[in-house]
Write a structure and sequence with these properties.
Blueprint (H helix, E strand, L loop, with lengths): L6 E6 L2 E7 L9 H6 L1 H5 L7 E6 L4 H13 L2 E6 L4 H5 L3 H8 L3 E4 L4 H5 L5 E3 L9 H18 L5 E7 L3 H13 L5 E7 L4 H11 L8 E2 L13 H14 L8 H8 L3 H4 L3 E5 L6 H11 L7
The structure holds pyridoxal-5'-phosphate (PLP).
Length: 298
């Protein structure tokens, strides 16, 4: 793994940002899923021979688990609700890549956690990698950021990253506060999957003490995860044109749109975390090109 991941300076909409390139950690094992599963990759589990998880058929966590299982020689069983006909007939993106890594698909069950209970040879991973072991890799991310701040004399820093389960943002804020007691590096995030109340609940499930919770920022308009928005497509294209960096299409467009309306955050040195996920772009991009054929050439 390419650690510490590089940090570069970028300009977007005439503003300067630092960008933490966690998308470059590893060709197959990238972004915040590499951080979340770092613990499993670097420890040995002689009694485990199978990893079981559940979630959507296009998830980045699903793909990363298929890579982890392959590296470890484990069977990977994944419980999925629904595989769209189009995806089944034209496998692509995370779905195809995970199947190529040997993923075994199972129809969704309400009780996946119970199914695997008391089976010592099975490693069970919550949807999206929301589990305590994630703290191991995310603490390393915090250490990398603190070392970079020291080298570059950046005392006061704002960090921004978009959230799904909120696991990465929460453990990052907690690690920074624990490693660096003065409250000078704040983590800001926005909920991409649910609303603000949902994200707060997610934080509370992982950490009861609100002192360690990141600050949640939102756009005024409601946003639905996975839905196509012209504004998201446009800012994603703009990001690529202005920074030369390929971002993910599910989380980053909302992340950047939110950050750009909070000058009180970005007027201080701000580090945006690129959390990978670009393999998942394939399916979103197909849908965007079909829906907005004129946008690309405008
Ligand atoms: C999984 C993922 C997220 C969400 O991470 P959480 O820790 O669940 O908040 C954000 N961006 C990308 C690219 C992801 O793959």
């Amino acid at each position: 793994m390419n650690l510490p991941s590089p940090i570069q300076s970028i300009f977007f909409e005439n503003k300067q940002f630092y960008l933490k390139r966690d998308d470059l950690i590893h060709a197959d094992f990238s972004g915040n899923k590499a951080r979340k599963f770092h613990y499993f990759l670097t420890h040995s589990f002689p009694h485990i021979n199978k990893v079981v998880s559940y979630g959507s058929a296009q998830s980045n966590a699903m793909y990363s688990l298929s890579v982890l299982a392959k590296m470890k020689g484990w069977v990977f069983e994944y419980y999925v609700d629904h595989v769209a006909d189009y995806l089944q007939e034209n496998p692509h993106g995370n779905y195809r890549a995970a199947l190529q890594n040997g993923m075994v698909l199972r129809p969704a069950q309400k009780t996946v956690a119970e199914l695997v209970e008391g089976k010592p040879d099975i490693l069970f991973i919550e949807e999206g990698g929301r589990q305590q072991e994630a703290v191991y890799g995310i603490k390393i991310l915090a250490q990398e950021i603190i070392a970079w701040q020291r080298e570059n004399n950046i005392e006061k820093l704002n960090i921004f990253l978009p959230s799904g389960t909120g696991t990465t943002a929460l453990f990052l804020q907690k690690s920074l506060l624990t490693l660096n007691a003065q409250r000078s590096t704040l983590v800001y995030t926005t909920p991409c999957v649910g609303n603000k109340a949902y994200l707060k609940e997610q934080f509370l499930m992982l950490e009861e003490d609100k002192v360690f919770h990141p600050t949640i920022l939102c756009l005024e308009k409601k946003h639905h995860f996975g839905k196509l928005y012209r504004e998201n497509y446009e800012i994603w294209l703009k990001l690529q044109q202005q920074t030369g960096v390929l971002f993910d299409l599910l989380y980053d467009p909302l992340g950047w749109r939110t950050l750009l309306v909070y000058p009180e955050v970005y007027s201080k040195p701000t580090l945006y975390i690129h959390q990978g996920g670009v393999l998942g772009n394939e399916s979103m991009l197909r849908r965007y090109v079909r829906k907005y054929p004129s946008v690309m050439s405008e």
